[in-house]
Amino acid sequence: MDKVWTLTLDTATPYLSLGLFRGEAGLGRVVRVERRHEEVLFKLLEEVLREVGARREAISTLVLGEGPGSYTGLRIALAAGLGLAQALGARVYGMSSLLAAAWPFLEEGKSLTPLFTARNRLYYGATYVLEGGRPREALPPRKVRAEELPREGLLLDAPPDPRALYELLPFAHKGVEPLYL
């Protein structure tokens, strides 16, 4: 069996973002689960595998969202993803969850600041610019108070996009480095 599928997974937000892609083919799902990621993750994975007609053993690569996000939320995707990768002999790459949320909305030369709601009127945010088709981090991930938010170029609580995680693979790094702020 050819190992040709890439699994994307992110649990840094109240959403479970999961996708399975091969070239232009594939399927991504985003489900609002609040704090029930672990209850839904493997059931959703099996549904997506069935829908694309693939077996788990055909997964060769995983791209995991690294946050920022809640400690427990991040650990769910990372533990599940690393466990699957070890069992399948698959490669693992990490990518910013904020960049995965922003990617579908980035426009050449324009900055965009995706934000995830944290607690106590705080947000996790970073600012990205698309330059020559490549994402550039203009401001690194950080916690921001509501009154410090930029007045324009905001993207609030958009979930990390499963296809974006796949499309961003050329810019991802090997291994995972969870971002706890």
UniProtKB/TrEMBL annotation:
Keywords: Transferase
One of the Pfam families matching this protein, by short name: TsaD
Signal peptide: none
Transmembrane segment boundaries: none
Biological process annotations from GO: tRNA threonylcarbamoyladenosine modification
Gene Ontology terms, MF aspect: transferase activity
Residues covered by the Gcp-like domain: 33-139
Keyword Transferase: yes
Name of this protein: tRNA (Adenosine(37)-N6)-threonylcarbamoyltransferase complex dimerization subunit type 1 TsaB
Species the sequence originates in: Thermus islandicus
